[in-house]
Amino acid sequence: MSETPTTVPTMGRRERKKAATRQALADAALELFLEHGYDQVSIRDVAEAADVSTTTLFKHFPSKEALVFDLDADQEAALVAAVRERAPGTSVPQALRDQLLGALFFSAEGSEQLATFHQLVRGTPALTEYHRRMWMRHQHAVAAAIAESAGAPADDPRCAALAHFALEARTLAESSPDPRATLDAAFDLLERGWDVVRPG
Q1: 8 located within any domain
Q2: Per-residue pLDDT at 83
Q3: Which of 64, 93, 130, 199 is deepest in the core (most CB within 10 A)?
Q4: Residue 4 falls inside a structural domain
Q5: Which range marks the domain in which residue 86 is found?
């Protein structure tokens, strides 16, 4: 890595065009799904709304479900950062709890579109299951960050367990009539368990 200050590189024309197409597809899909319902909208409908071919659509999104969730990498980066960049004196479970409460549940509280989006996901079994599978893929990255933070081996099963149950707590909370209370209850248990793992 060079120590010479550099400017942040800008995307070239091709990359900008690809990013714009991807965003147009995601926006068109969400608008159609919210207006007509997920099951009533086809891949062709989304492609036509974004003025691209279905072949182009599949170059950006591997499935219809993937059109709904366009922030997978951002979410994983935020979870890992919550562990690695937490304030001194903040435990790993507390950092993850704060991240989930802030970023995933309440940062956009009051947004009508966000509420409608969550209703769409919860009311569509295919989206609910896809969302859970996608979300749980972050487990390995979060477990690695926890192990690094605790000075534990990368394959420490306790770190893997904490990552797994912390991520599952979100799934549990989303199906609860009181998501905040449910998430707090889950992390209260995880916090007490973490006392056994962290260095003295």
Answers
A1: no
A2: 96
A3: 93
A4: no
A5: 72-194
**Cα–Cα distance for residue pair 82/73, rounded to 1 Å:** 14
- Are residue 106 and residue 182 in the same domain, yes or no? yes
> Do both 76 and 145 map to the same domain?
yes
In this prediction, residue 188 has a pLDDT band, given cuts at 50, 70 and 90, of: very high
Q: Is residue 58 part of a domain?
A: yes
Residue 100's domain is classified under what CATH number? 1.10.357.10
C-alpha of 50 from chain center: 24
Place of tokens 């248990």: 189
Write out pLDDT tens, residues 47-79.
Answer: 999 999 999 999 999 889 888 876 666 788 999
Residue 4 has pLDDT above 50, yes or no: no
pLDDT at 182 over 70: yes
Q: Please tell me which residue, 76 or 107, carries the higher pLDDT value.
A: 76
**Is 76 in the same domain as 160?**
yes
pTM, rounded to two decimals: 0.69
Number of domains in the chain: 2
Which CATH number goes with the domain that contains 48?
Answer: 1.10.10.60
Cβ atoms 102, 43 nearer than 8 A: no
Helices (H), the chain: 13-36, 43-49, 54-60, 72-84, 92-99, 112-122, 125-136, 139-150, 157-174, 179-194
